[in-house]
């Protein structure tokens, strides 16, 4: 026993001595993590993004110029447009293969999850919580929680792999002039009222051809997800292992599409033609991203009274909608470049900057306090009242799932919506949902529309 | 004697070296940008390559696409069937039209040059730009195509959004029940084919015009003296002597249609309901949207093999019937 104890005591003492010796200089001189270091010299960064057109592209370039001019640490960022989100994704995948990545990349959550398969994305949590370079508690609390939720990846240990950047929301656009002409005085709050209003606002000529539609809805999985949520349903199960939209709420959405498309009250737009229809009062409702505001406003040849708000709800007292939009991820490079990238991301979410971004890009500010920003308030009042309406929806927004396999699920949803709106829903009683027996992985392949 | 032979050999070597030197830029270019990427695609196709290189799979990616994985193989065979249908609609119509137009334009026609230019214009227009314009021409609500069809009582065609088969639609209009197997290609695919024909017609006309110009006038004069009719002249002289051009156009058009991507991507993006998802579209989806790089590369290799096999068959069967003069 004693023979055993002596070496154990000696080993413990040696370990303690070693630990003390190692901890001494580190505690006084060197930072503990890469997130705590300081920028020591000029740093050049490249940001690949997907903002292909103005006003968003110009707004981002102006913001980056402002950062370059004012950061005082010698950080210079060069923004590079890499086409739309799909093209940017393709180029980033190529850059991963070639080992020639930019330092910062603009991406959707599912794309970030893909990039991290190659372990090239930096966890921003240590940077955000760094005492030297991070965001204080007040600032963290000021950023809307869903914006954090959407950028934490359960499949990667809940790491904060990206940060909110070009955020928007799924909202309903209402042409109040069309509603008034149909004798409707209030914007529908429930789905039942909405359907009635769509039918009432639709106009047909003597031959039965629709001359004014009640609703135009681009077919898209995110839109469907938002509608399911607003009907009280969920998109994924609590454990994120199977879909949850195939319940009664999902079916109700499909049945509503079926009724309104078959009746000639709603149509599937080609490209962005719905914006022109809405602006020309040939359309009462449409639903989509808040970032369409400048394009709709720009298409108006004569002033139109229009509003933006949460989509109709099953329970209007607890409104729910989907949070749209992309984020930025910082990719692995050198400690100096990673820190410089984080400092830009942090600066971009500052209250003044996010408020300014909201006025110039039409994307959503990420902070609650932005609502108190005088410049933003003036801008909303004078130029973009719908921007304030959109901002008020943020608290009702929920991020879409960011687990891997979402692309396959989105394909299934799109096929389902196409079948319903082109009258290909099988069976005499309209659409129905059923689940294929569990067979091959991935689990997403088990979903089907029957 | 020996000295002269040695000198000749030296000169020959120098000449060969010079020739190879001249070939170097082309070999480097082709090697770097064509052959090397193609070989690398073959290499990738042998691995599970899901954003990053994974385990070696041998030919399993190919087996998955062809039969092993039900979902993948169904999608592949469906897309191959769509590709063949698209080729069957496009190539014969395109060639027949091009031949007729070329024959007419070859006659002594007033304003012939202007017509030739007009027919050639679509070919030199950017595919993406032209396809975008086509989206508006065939717009379900505002498109000029539907407005013109409305004049003859046909309305409400959704064109690039329509997954229904054209024979099924025709049957519905006539009140005849058409079984599913006879539904035909979707209206969306027919729309894409119309675009392809319009876009590439000019190129084929140009080739045929070149061929027509090479046929000696004396053949026609002699045949006319023998009392041949216009149709006989075309069948007995023009067609046989134009066979090299017909064969060339057929080969090029077939390869082009099998590889077609841009126009389908812009017009339908493989939809509606995958009815225009050709192999290239499926490859793009697998590679870029699903991030299955190994599988996507295997699909690319398979498509290359299919095109190669098809071209070889064309050469074996049709190449022999070509008359080179």
Explain what the structure shows.
The complex is a heterodimer of chains A (450) and B (325). Chain A folds into 2 domains: 36-167 and 325-391, Periplasmic binding protein-like II (D-Maltodextrin-Binding Protein, domain 2), CATH 3.40.190; 169-323 and 401-449, 3-Layer(aba) Sandwich (D-Maltodextrin-Binding Protein, domain 2), CATH 3.40.190. Helices cover 43% and strands 17% of the residues of chain A. Chain A has 18 helices and 15 strands. Chain A has helices at residues 2-28, 56-70, 85-98, 109-117, 125-128, 137-142, 145-149, 176-181, 191-201, 221-230, 248-262, 273-279, 293-299, 335-348, 351-361, 374-382, 385-391, 406-421; strands spanning 43-49, 75-81, 104-107, 152-153, 159-160, 163-175, 203-204, 210-216, 266-267, 283-289, 306-309, 321-330, 397-399, 433-435, 447-449. In chain A, strands 1, 2, 3, 6, 7, 8, 9, 10, 11, 12 and 13 form an 11-stranded mixed β-sheet that branches. The model of chain A is unreliable at 7-29 and 436-450 (pLDDT under 50). Chain B folds into 2 domains: 2-44, no CATH class; 60-145 and 186-321, Orthogonal Bundle (MetI-like fold), CATH 1.10.3720.10. Chain B has helices at 2-44, 60-68, 70-106, 112-124, 127-137, 144-151, 166-174, 187-214, 217-225, 230-241, 243-259, 262-267, 279-289, 293-317, and strands at 47-50, 52-56. The model of chain B has no long low-confidence stretch (mean pLDDT 91). At the A-B interface, α3, α4 and α18 of A face loops of B.
């Amino acid at each position: 026993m004693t023979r055993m104890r002596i070496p154990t005591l000696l080993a413990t003492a040696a370990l303690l001595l070693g630990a003390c010796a190692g901890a001494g200089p580190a505690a006084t001189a060197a930072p503990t993590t890469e997130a705590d270091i300081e920028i020591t010299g000029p740093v050049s960064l490249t940001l690949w993004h997907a903002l292909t057109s103005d006003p968003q592209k110009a707004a981002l370039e102006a913001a980056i110029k402002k950062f370059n001019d004012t950061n005082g640490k010698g950080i210079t960022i060069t923004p590079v447009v890499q086409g739309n989100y799909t093209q940017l994704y393709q180029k980033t995948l190529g850059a991963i293969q070639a080992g020639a990545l930019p330092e910062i990349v603009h991406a959707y959550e599912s794309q970030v999850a893909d990039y991290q398969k190659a372990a090239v994305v930096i966890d921003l949590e240590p940077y955000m919580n760094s005492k030297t370079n991070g965001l204080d508690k007040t600032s963290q609390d000021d950023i809307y929680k869903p914006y954090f939720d959407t950028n934490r990846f359960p499949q990667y240990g809940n790491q904060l792999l990206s940060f909110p950047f070009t955020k928007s929301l799924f909202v309903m656009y209402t042409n109040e002039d069309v509603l008034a002409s149909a004798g409707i005085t209030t914007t529908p709050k429930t789905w039942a009222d909405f359907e009635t209003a769509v039918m009432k606002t639709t106009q047909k000529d003597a031959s039965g051809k629709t001359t004014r539609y009640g609703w135009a809805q681009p077919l898209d999985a995110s839109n469907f997800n938002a509608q399911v949520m607003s009907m009280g349903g969920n998109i994924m199960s609590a454990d994120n292992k199977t879909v949850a939209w195939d319940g009664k709420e999902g079916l109700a959405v499909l049945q509503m599409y079926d009724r309104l498309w078959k009746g000639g009250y709603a149509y599937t737009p080609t490209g962005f033609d719905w914006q022109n229809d809405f602006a020309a009062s040939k359309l009462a409702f449409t639903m989509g991203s808040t970032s369409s505001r400048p394009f709709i406003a720009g298409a108006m040849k004569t002033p139109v009274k229009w509003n933006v708000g949460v989509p109709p709800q099953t329970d209007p007292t607890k409104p729910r909608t989907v949070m749209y939009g992309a984020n930025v991820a910082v990719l692995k490079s050198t400690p100096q470049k990673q820190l410089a990238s984080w400092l830009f991301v942090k600066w971009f979410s500052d209250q003044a900057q996010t408020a300014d971004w909201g006025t110039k890009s039409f994307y959503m500010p990420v902070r609650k306090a932005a609502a108190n920003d005088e410049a933003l308030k003036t801008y909303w009042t004078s130029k973009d009242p719908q921007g304030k309406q959109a901002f008020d929806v943020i608290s009702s927004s929920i991020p879409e799932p960011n687990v891997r396999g979402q692309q396959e699920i989105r394909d299934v949803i799109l096929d389902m919506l196409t079948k319903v709106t082109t009258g290909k829903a099988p069976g005499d009683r309209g659409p129905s949902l059923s689940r294929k027996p569990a067979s091959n992985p991935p689990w997403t392949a088990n979903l089907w529309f029957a | 004697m020996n000295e002269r032979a040695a000198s000749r050999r030296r000169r020959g070597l120098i000449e060969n070296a010079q020739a190879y030197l001249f070939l170097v830029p082309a070999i480097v270019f082709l090697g770097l940008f064509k052959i090397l990427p193609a070989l690398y695609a073959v290499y990738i196709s042998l691995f599970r390559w899901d954003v990053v290189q994974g385990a070696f799979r041998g030919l399993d990616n190919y087996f998955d696409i062809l039969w092993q994985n039900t979902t993948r193989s169904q999608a592949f065979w469906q897309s191959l069937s769509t590709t063949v249908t698209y080729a069957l609609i496009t190539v014969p119509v395109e060639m027949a039209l091009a031949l007729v137009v070329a024959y007419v334009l070859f006659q002594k026609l007033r304003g012939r040059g202007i017509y030739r230019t007009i027919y050639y214009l679509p070919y030199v227009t950017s595919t993406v730009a032209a396809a975008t314009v086509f989206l508006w021409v065939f717009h379900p609500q505002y498109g000029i195509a539907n407005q013109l069809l409305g004049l003859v009582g046909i309305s409400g065609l959704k064109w690039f959004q329509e997954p229904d088969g054209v024979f099924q639609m025709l049957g519905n209009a006539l009140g005849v029940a058409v079984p599913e197997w006879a539904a035909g290609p979707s209206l969306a695919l027919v729309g894409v084919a119309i675009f392809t024909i319009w876009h590439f017609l000019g190129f084929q006309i140009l080739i045929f015009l070149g061929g027509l110009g090479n046929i000696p006038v004396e053949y026609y004069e002699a045949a006319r003296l023998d009392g041949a009719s216009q149709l006989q002249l075309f069948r007995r002289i023009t067609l046989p002597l134009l066979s090299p051009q017909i064969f060339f156009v057929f080969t090029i058009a077939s390869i082009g249609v099998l590889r077609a991507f841009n126009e389908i991507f812009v017009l339908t993006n493989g939809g509606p309901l995958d009815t225009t998802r050709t192999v290239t579209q499926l490859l793009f989806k697998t590679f870029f949207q699903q991030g299955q790089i190994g599988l996507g590369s295997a699909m690319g290799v398979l498509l290359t093999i299919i095109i190669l096999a098809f071209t070889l068959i064309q050469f074996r069967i049709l190449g022999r019937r070509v008359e080179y003069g």
